[in-house]
Amino acid sequence: MGGTLIVEDLHSSVEGKEILRGVNLTVKPGEFHVVMGPNGSGKSTLALTIAGHPKYEVTGGRIVFKGRDVTKMPPHERAKLGIFLAFQQPHEVEGVRIMEFLQQVLAELKGMDGAEAYDLIIRTAKDMWFREEDLYRPINVGFSGGERKRLELLQAVLIKPDLLILDEPDSGVDVDSMSLISRKIEQLNEEGTSVILITHYGRILKHLEPEDIKVHVMKDGRIVMTRGGEFIDEIERRGFQDIFKDCCGGD
Amino acid sequence: MEDARSIIENQIEELAERNREPEWMTEIRRKALEAFLKAPHNDPVISEEELLQFIARPEIKGLPEKIESLDDLPEDMRNLLDRLGISEVEQKYLAGMAVQTDTGIVYNQFLKEWAEKGLTVLPTEEAVRKYPDVVKSHFLRLIDASESKLAAYHTAVWNGGIFLHVREGLKVPFPLHLFFLIQESALAQAPHIIIIAEPNSEFHLIEGCTSPVLVRHSLHLDMTEAYIGDGAKARLTVLQNWPEYVHTRPMTRAKVGRNASFINTTVTLGSGKSNVANPKYTVDEGGRVELNGIILGQKDYYIDLGGEMKLIGRGASGLNASKSVIMDRSRVITRGVIEAMAPGTKGHISCDALLMSDEAEMETYPGLRSRVSEAELSHEAAIGRIREEELFYLMSRGLDEEKATQLIVKGFLAPMLKDIPAEFLVEIRKIVEMAVSGGM
Known about the structure:
The complex is a heterodimer of chains A (about 250) and B (about 450).
Chain A lengths: L4 E10 L2 E11 L4 E5 L6 H9 L4 E10 L2 E2 L5 H7 L1 E4 L6 E5 H13 L3 H14 L10 E2 L5 H15 L3 E5 L7 H16 L3 E5 L14 E7 L2 E7 L2 H8 L1 H9 L3
Parallel strand pairs in A: 3-10, 3-11, 6-9, 9-10
Antiparallel strand pairs in A: 1-2, 1-4, 4-5, 7-8, 11-12
Helix pairs in contact in A: 3-4, 5-6, 7-8
Chain B lengths: L1 H17 L4 H16 L9 H9 L18 H10 L3 H8 L5 H17 L1 E5 H7 L1 H5 L12 H9 L4 E5 L9 E2 L1 H9 L4 E6 L4 E6 L11 E2 L2 E6 L4 E10 L4 E2 L2 E6 L4 E11 L2 E4 L2 E4 L4 E10 L4 E4 L2 E4 L5 E10 L4 E4 L2 E4 L4 E11 L5 E4 L2 E4 L4 E11 L2 H8 L5 H13 L8 H15 L4
Parallel strand pairs in B: 2-4, 3-5, 4-7, 5-8, 6-9, 7-10, 8-11, 9-12, 10-13, 11-14, 12-15, 13-16, 14-17, 15-18, 16-19, 17-20, 18-21, 19-22, 20-23
Antiparallel strand pairs in B: 1-2
Helix pairs in contact in B: 1-2, 2-9, 11-12, 12-13
């Protein structure tokens, strides 16, 4: 377990448009980081760039994980190194059944054989409110928002990554699913997974002590403030426009 | 053309003697030769000139004369078998094109038991001698030899093929994989297959195998005539894996009786250089026909899959569904036609294609003709590529691009493979994987 993530002066563009303009972030093993910020500030781009989405071109800086420069590494190798991104809007993959996909992933990442993986998947999925027949549906096809987010977490729980990046796991999710999801995130973190949580709300973190959390606020493609967990309440109370007066003179 | 005449004449006499065939059959051949000289030629790939060259020199040079063990196979084919991990039985019957006896006995034993119940399976040549009356009334009754040069040429020189006759009401509970007869037929250039399903009979015939078939000729013309009696339920699954030097022109005709069903699934794993097929079906009252096509287009191969269904009886229905994975510089065309000729008929054409390269081409021409007012005809087509987001999703979980692509392609084809017995599925999936990663 473990491995530090170092993001150094990261610049990233989509279709020629620069979105990240020099992000610096260090996440040590087992740490819990929250990234907040208004829409369009670059939160999802940061997540997708770290995961290696081909559309996000790194135009400057670098990403280092476990001492290795992963900036140019293809996404599957980053996954094998222990990086996992739970998507904000998980895509449908027509025709590919969840069970078969997860069995192959577990074979690839953990060297697990099919039967062993099958048992683990069934057990873990039940614990996360999936019925067995759900696992024979194609990935995300016809899934509700809540189901999609639960499926992301199910994968994270099965894989137990060293670094879990969650892009708004709370959006489009009902109250019950949200409490399940937050419980699973906290559980993974307790077991040693480092977490970068992108969210608009602090309410997903019920059981974590504020002193165990680092909160970053993004604006215009940069992290402009980093504080402790208690900052979440303040952001919720004051809103980003007011908060930005403290750091950046407002705009 | 005169050269072709004398070549075909010689072939006819040779076949007549070798097969010890009755005069009426030789007469059919001779008539077909006359038809050949006059018939139109309209192949999209093979010109008339090329056809005449094929006729003059049907065999490929450099292939082994006789194959008695795997060691006799060309090296690339042997390597392919190893990589496919093709089952031992299949390897044996592939090697056993000269007839592999040990497994052969098992099948003969099975066929003997079922023969008493009314299942007849014979090489077509033998059926001509043994059941002349039955063959006479079912040979070339669904197709006119003069409709094209290829049909006429097939009829003149047909050899190999199987004759399947299922007695009224007989239900064969497991799929018939007629390995040997089929394999020998593949060696022949123009096998003729006759299927007679008597009323209320049921069976599933699987032709071919997933291993690449070694053929000795560069043009393969097989013809299938299927007579599906009232209330019968027949399934014909054809697995094709042709080597790249062969052009194949399967000709299928089926007559589907009242309340009968005929499910014709064709899995084209290796199409050969070109594969042009336009099976034709007529469907009587309450009958149903399904043509399911799975197509893997590779290299610069040309695949043209038609399918004509005439719904002649009230309430008849037809489905023409295909799924194509089109790679490299290959070109796939689908052109199903469904004609509603009676009230209450239903027809649907669906065509899905996954384009895997910028140079691959797909065209689809659905044809729906309604001659009556109360008919439901519809079609849908979707030609797409693997989306970047799908691929990234799978890759972000640790699968490399090749494995992620394979998973998506297998998933795309899966709904069409539901009727294929499990023992073939493993190999079909492996062939798809290898084709996708460019390993074939």
